[in-house]
Structures are given as structure tokens and as C-alpha cells.
Fold this protein.
Amino acid sequence: MLFDSHAHINFESFENIWKEVLDDCQKNDIWVVNIGSQFPTSKRAVEIAEEYEKGVYASIGVHPIHSHEQENAFDYKKFVDLITVGAGLVPAQDSGDHKGRPYNTNKIVAIGETGLDFFHSAKYFEIQKKTFIEQINLAKEFDLSLIIHGRNSKDGAINCYQEIYKIIKKEKVKNAVVHCFGGNADEAKQFMGLGLYIGVTGIVTFKNAKELQSMVRDVIPLEKILIETDSPYLAPDPHRGEQNKPQYVEYVARKIAELKNISYEKACEVLCANARKFYNV
Ligand SMILES: [Zn+2]
């Protein structure tokens, strides 16, 4: 068994092949969580998950790069409807109080991806932070895991991980993953100190990813790693540059086994157990 903890088969590049890709995953016992980045892609992730009995799940949320694009890009109530009603989205008779509402889809396993992204600009910091905290609150309300995205400014002057750390510490976030982790060893240790998981993508297979490889070897225990593809992006070696797919999570697992000097089977066993525990599936 393999578990791709972060993919976007709900995105347009899979529009015509999503079923073929996921049916093949089912056949090969590869479980997948599709991650939303805006409301429509979140809804799509839920629709896709509802097509499968098990092994395909959804995370719903608004990516920081989309948080300023329209007013109220993260509409709390719409996301509550998605959780309580499902992708059919018959709007609930809202009494204004969601507490105790039935939880109608067991296919939504997390909130996100949310977080902070300063790569293009830091000028949206406040709106990103506000949207991030709202999603932390949604995860808490429904006792769901949280998927955190972070990206530093282009020149490296503004560190997203320090800002993320401050927020999640203050908000007492515990069940979260820092997806596609791009920080240093001290930052990884800080996050793990709060009980968080570290997301490792196909980047770990790249020849020039020396810092990440040494962190995986020496700093991050196997029990704290979630493997992911981030499909359609970041295809691992030897498929670098192609459209990624969940099947390629195997290359990530193989590289981690090599770095940890353990068998591929043992790595898969622990890495799958981590993801199942994190998502509670
Ligand atoms: Zn992603």
C-alpha cells in the first residue's frame, strides 16, 4: 500500500483523466487525498471522493495565493455547508449555529491548503493571516486535520515559516502538516516540537536537494513524515518535468527508504500508517 497525502486530481489538468488515474490507484492500493485551493476545487475534491467507497478523500480550503483575489474568498458558511451537506450543496437551513449539525460526508478529512505565501508579494500578509486563522477555526470546529502551505519571498528576506509558527503556536494547532516543507532543520524541529508532521514531495529525489535530503536522513524521524506528490506539480526523478500523478509517490517512498537506510517495504508501512493516523482513515 502507498498513500499520496497531497494531490490535486481535482485540478483542470486532470479534467479528462481523473477517473483513469484514480481507478488505477484503487487497483494498486494507492490512497489519495485531493486538496482544494479555492471553493470550486474544494467542492470538486469532495465530488471526486464521493465517487469512491474508500481510498480517495478530500481536503477543503483556500490557498493563501487566492485569499485576496475576491472579497470573502474564504466563506466560512459555504465551507461548513460542504462539510455538513456534501458536494450536492443543498444549502442547510442555517440557524446561525453549526454546533451539533450532522456531519454528512466522511470523505472530508482535512482543511487546507491554507497558510502564508510571500513568493510573489508580502503585501497580502494581513488578508492571508486572517484567512489562515479562519481555516484553523474551521478545522477545530469539525475536529479535522490542517494542511499548511508556506513559501518564502523570492529574495528570501521574508520567512513564511517563522510567521506560520507564531500563528499556529498562538492558536494551539496540533494536528497539522507543513506540506512540501522548504525550510531548514531548525524550522523542522520547531514544527515537530508542536507535534506537526513534515510533508515531503518529489523534490527529495532531485539531485540538487541536498539540504532536504540531509534533513530527511538526520533530522526528521520517519514517524513524522507524510509523503506527497503535489500532482500535477513537482514530478519526482526520473519523471521530473512531466505531469505528476499519485502513482509517482512510490519514488518519494523509495528515496526516503534509501536515505533512512531501511527497506522500501518498511518505509511504506510506516509512511502509510502516518498518513492514515493523520487523516483518521
Ligand atoms: Zn498543493
